[in-house]
Amino acid sequence: MLASRRRIKMHVNWGLLVVLYLFIAGMAGGIYFTTAMYEFFNGAINEKMKKGYLYAFFLLIIAVVLLILDLERPARFMHMMFAYKFFSPMSMGSWGLFFFGLNAFITISINSKGALKPLGELFLKFLPYKAYILVGSALAIFLSAYTGVLLSETTITIWASTPFLGSLFLISGVSCGVCFLMLLNKDNDDFIKKGKMLDNMCLILELTIILFFVLALTIGYGPYPEIKNLFSGLYGFLFIGLGVVVGAILPILMNVFGKISLASPVLVLIGAFFLRYAIVFAGQIK
Amino acid sequence: MRFGMLNDVTRCTGCRSCQVACKQWNDRKAEETKNLGSYENPFNLSGNTWKRVKFVEKEEGDYAKWSFFSYQCNHCGDAGCMAVCPANAIKRSRNGAVYIDEKICTGCKYCLQACPFHIPHTDEEKKVSSKCTFCVDRISNGLPPACAKACPTGAIVFGSRDYVLAVARERASILAERGEKKFTMYGENILGGLGVIYLLPDSPEVYGLPEKPKNPPAVNFVNVFSNSFVSLIVALLITIGAYASFKKEDKDAR
């Protein structure tokens, strides 16, 4: 074999920490959005449901810590806050994380009955509460979608060849948010019933986007040899087996044909993690 | 004035003096490498190797054709790495050199994912992204890059980009007169015009160069908009879904 044809193993630049970040940040956005929508459309919600804002905030902190740890120079993460580049998703994402976190904190302080209550009352002098949760919902949508757009703005074939990664990560993040809240509010029959309905819609939409994503990769954009990494071998199993079958198809069937069970949200969370894992790793293998 | 460099593969003898000169001038450390069955060494660019001579073998009938391809960062006119860098650590000098400011770089590796030529690598010691600077310190002071200065055969030519293009065209016409048919002049118009022009005896793919390299879509704005547009539609659908699922039922109202 000619020496120049020898394959050099591609270094994986974004690894497990990035996958965890994408998963947790997407879920944080989904949790905030679901809590806000439940409060907005359903009227009053109980205190336990309102903790969704708190979970979203803490998950965001965890996500940011993971992101900073993944930097080669973690102490310099503030450099991203000194720049603003509209067409760099990472730059926009840094600001999105900041404003989402700020808004989540405001929402928490408004709902607080403890030490943060005076601060919450101060915030209410500027805008009504519903305005804060609507702005927060928009930022939550941005946060979940940006995790996909971040990947798509590269030269990695699997990530960059379709316009569907942002929407896929968005719908998956919202689905995770619904499932996370279902697991923590299992005694809230109203939310479990309604959450299951929203989760089903999200999962059906997610499957539709996955279909478009796969079709765009395999038909619309020509036969890229790299895409076989996503449909065969370990990553094929993780993407199709865990991400699609276990994480979407099975929960839909369980939601439709089975009685209300908490196994379904667990499967959705597992599937969503491995969906991201497979896409991130398969994309980086040459 | 934008500077340019010609890498003329038809004249390269694979002596690797450019590789050594680059290491010396830029104070890049030598790396321990393994013999993988070729004289080519090292086998890839790295945080410490910014310039490399690739030994390209191509089977032609019973023979293997051997050519030497000296390459480094191409200092693209539309530099994808620069467009996506979230900390503005990648800059362009007035003379066209695209370089990384090590004091600002956070090591997020976005530039590594965005370069269509897979040029930037992580400097494992400094923990920042690292690549050829076009010897910006030299060219800003009227000197050619170290690799161009060291090249003994004229395979690397440095000057204004217009001058380099003129030399490349002249050499291409000589190749055409000799009856060479496969040669390619690479980099004149792609990605906003590369700062490094290649004169290749064969098609770009033979040398591992993409025929139509694409920047990350952010540079062309297309994917940002298309991704955002699809995401907006999905966001709208989810909001409608949330309303349908969460709306207060009549019996609750009563």
Distinctive features:
heterodimer; A: 286 residues; mainly alpha; Formate dehydrogenase/DMSO reductase fold; 11 helices; 74% helix; 0% strand; globular; disordered N terminus; B: 254 residues; alpha+beta; Alpha-Beta Plaits; 2 domains; 4-stranded mixed beta sheet; two-stranded antiparallel sheet; 19% strand
Write the layout of secondary structure elements.
The complex is a heterodimer of chains A (286) and B (254).
Chain A: H1 16-42, H2 47-70, H3 89-111, H4 117-124, H5 129-152, H6 157-160, H7 165-184, H8 189-220, H9 228-231, H10 233-257, H11 263-283
Chain B: E1 3-8, H1 17-26, E2 52-60, E3 63-71, H2 80-84, E4 90-92, E5 98-100, H3 110-114, E6 121-123, E7 128-130, H4 136-139, H5 146-150, E8 156-160, H6 161-177, E9 184-186, E10 196-200, H7 217-220, H8 222-246, H9 250-253
Parallel strand pairs in B: 1-10
Antiparallel strand pairs in B: 1-8, 2-3, 4-5, 6-7, 9-10
Structure in words:
The complex is a heterodimer of chains A (286) and B (254). Chain A has one domain: Up-down Bundle (Formate dehydrogenase/DMSO reductase fold). Chain A is mainly alpha-helical and 286 residues long. Chain A contains eleven helices and no strands. Chain A is globular. Chain B is of the alpha+beta class and 254 residues long. In chain B, the strands form four sheets. Chain B has a four-stranded mixed β-sheet with strand order 8-1-10-9. Chain B has a two-stranded antiparallel ribbon with strand order 2-3. Chain B has a two-stranded antiparallel sheet with strand order 4-5. Chain B has nine helices and ten strands. Chain B starts with a strand and ends with a helix. Chain B has helices at 17-26, 80-84, 110-114, 136-139, 146-150, 161-177, 217-220, 222-246, 250-253, and strands at residues 3-8, 52-60, 63-71, 90-92, 98-100, 121-123, 128-130, 156-160, 184-186, 196-200. Chain B has two domains: 1-215, Alpha-Beta Plaits; 216-254. Chain B is globular. Classes of the chains: A mainly alpha (286), B alpha+beta (254). Chains A and B meet through helix 1, helix 3, helix 5, helix 7 and helix 8 of A and strand 2, helix 2, helix 3, helix 7 and helix 8 of B.
